[in-house]
Amino acid sequence: MRALRWHGRRDLRLEDVPDPGPPGPGEVTVAVEWCGICGTDVEEYTDGPLVIPSTPHPLTGLTSPMIVGHEVAGRVAAAGPGAGLAPGTLVALDGYLYCGRCRACERHQVNLCERWAHIGMSYPGGLAERMVVPASMAVPATSDLPGDELALAEPCSVAVRSLRRARLQLGERLVVIGAGTIGLAVLQVARTAGAGETVAVDPIPARRELAGRLGADDAAPGVEALAGAGMAGAFDLVVDCSGSSEVPNAAMALTRPGGRIVLVGFPPRPGTLDYKTLLLRELTLVASVGHVYDEDFATAVGLLCSNRVDAAALISHRIPLERAVPDGIELLAGEGRKDALKILVSPTI
Question: What's the pTM?
Fold first, then answer.
């Protein structure tokens, strides 16, 4: 079968690789329909290896070269004994593999497993024609949901977890910094959860306009613009999806005393923190990473199936597998990323 494999920094190859074979007990074969390209994929391409193992992974035993891609939607092509999913079922893949024995797993924080693995990083991913995965990873969707929209389940689940970690309350005022795919998903999930006034911050005008169409009450090009417009200290909650190490300090200016700041975007380098302001204003700083299959991922699939999150609005490109590098990864690694949101790849078009 065809698959896109990471061999090294700036070395992604579309190759013919062995078929993954039949599913074992509790496993399913998934015929991939769509797989989104994530910022993690781009960072592995430009600066890796970051997460892709160069020595055998402690859970999967696998190493590079690695089939990439972890935002996957497809249909069950075959099911092993005890899988509990019928062939033809439309599914999205949560992606996490975990040991089930460490302290994090015992607390049901499988995203923090001491030996966590993930499809597309330390286990063969979805930029391929087929995958064999644990059936517990495959979350079924309603058959009428388009497969390309279901591929947004993974970023949507990141948004769900961030607001779960934030303990969002009805009517609270919220600002989302960074109106990319994750930020726009946070905005929509927050509205479904009963948030009050919501504001999006992004320097790109088209993203601010889209945020307005998806429910934001206002949008601004930067944190300074909001603070200068009399909104300093106006928000109960700030969700930072920008990935900039400079944003958390700026976000403090927007947060009311006793408010919360949730960090979702992954910064490429360490930053500094204004501990004095954090302490004197009794702010709560919360980190949110990944998702848990039943708490966050299943909720995200439900939001997509009920049309409470507009996934189609977040898709900017749909491309075939053979164009994944030039029209997907490389575009997002360059200036073209300003005109893109979610790029989806399909092995069937």
Answer: 0.96
